[in-house]
Amino acid sequence: MKKMMISIIAIACLGSAVILSGAHLKGTWKAEMEDDTVQMRMRMRGEKGFKDDWNFGQSFQTSDFTGFAWGESEAFSLVREAGTIEFKAEFSGSRASGTFVFIPNVEFDNYLVKKGFDGVTEKKMLTLCLTDVTKEHIEDVFELGYSDISLSKLIAFAIHDVTVDFIKDIHSLGYEDITASKLISFAIHDVDPVYIRDLQKQGYKNLTPEKLISFAVHDVTVDYIKELNSLGFSDLEPSKLVSFAVHDVNTTLVKTIRDLGYVDIAPSKIVSFAIHDITAGYIKDIHSLGYIDISPEELISFRIHDVDKEFVKRVQSKWEEKLSPRKIISLKIHDF
Fold it and tell me: How many angstroms separate the CA atoms of 276 and 117, rounded?
């Protein structure tokens, strides 16, 4: 996925170079060049000062520009369907800087209005230009069922690389009715067709878009699922799988718990062990005091109520008989 850095999103494009009436957007830019790649940062001052600044960063190829020769061109341009950006340049070795002016394409502006887009501003036209959104792309998006897409989401499609091929692939995997917002979330969190297919091979075939995003956000990878499968957790519900990942339940933790005698412990209890920091050392301490058969539920209660090795020793010094875990917890609650 191509990477872009955006503050207050704006985009510059060049098409037929038709000049709209009124003042055009102007700003400054800085760039560095390596081989044929130009890494450019663009900036426009906001009406309310620095907090309202617009910043945009992107890598371009030298071939994207017209009249461009690094170190030689005092002026060059970026021409796309949405408009033209005219650059003034000063060069210093591998670095350059200067000013720019964006000239929107009136014909493209009219096309957007005819397609039903509201709120077409010069800044949004700039964004459409920089992300190279074309009429063909818009028509393809409409044909895929997104004829009611807003201009902001269309721009988000371009920024996050939600391409026509990406949409078709997602649809082919059973998500024909996925919303534009969810497609953007898929792209942001790297929920791509390969990831979905791999999950389906592991038995997770009917996950909702929300659950897929949750899997990706919490790093539920295919390797992680295979690791848990090797421990006997082959039929975990998606929500349990997410809980495992959220609380860092891994092979080491599960094996440690089982080695200490909790072979048939339920997945929910393993999660609770992780949540309440019931470590191998803590369990061994409690076992060493004669509570070798303490249940997972009782261990969790011990931890919740801050029953530690020192407290149990203090209780044992006052009672000759062995007290039950429940009695120890009661004493702790009542500030023994």
Answer: 52
- pTM summary value: 0.83
Amino acid at 80: R
248 CB-near residues (< 8 Å, 6+ apart): 274
Q: By the 8 A CB rule, do 87 and 100 touch?
A: yes
Closest CA to 259 of 231, 226, 222: 231
Enumerate the domain spans of the chain.
5-130, 222-333
* Cβ within 8 Å of residue 223, ≥6 positions away: none
Nearest-angstrom CA–CA distance, 143 and 167: 11
Helix (H, G, I), strand (E, B) or coil at 136: helix
Q: Determine the residue type at 22.
A: G
Q: What is the DSSP string of 192-243?
A: -HHHHHHHHHTT--S--HHHHHHHHHTT--HHHHHHHHTTT--S--HHHHHH
Query: What is the Cα Rg of the chain in Å?
Result: 30
Q: Which amino acid is at 276?
A: H
What does the alpha-carbon distance between residue 7 and residue 254 come to, in Å, rounded to a whole number? 44
Tell me which residue of 253, 272, 255 sits closest to 263, measured CA to CA.
255
The number of residues making up the chain comes to: 336
DSSP string across 154-204: HHHHHHTT--HHHHHHHHHTT-TT--HHHHHHHHHTT--HHHHHHHHHTT-
Digits of tens for pLDDT over the chain (336 positions)? 444 443 333 333 433 333 444 579 999 999 999 989 999 999 998 777 677 789 999 999 999 999 999 989 899 999 999 999 999 999 999 899 999 999 999 999 999 999 999 999 999 999 999 999 999 999 999 999 999 999 999 999 999 999 999 999 999 999 999 999 999 999 999 999 999 999 999 999 999 999 999 999 999 999 999 999 999 998 899 999 999 999 999 999 999 999 999 999 999 999 999 999 999 999 999 999 999 999 999 999 999 999 999 999 999 999 989 999 999 999 999 988
Helix (H) or strand (E) holding 60: strand 49-61
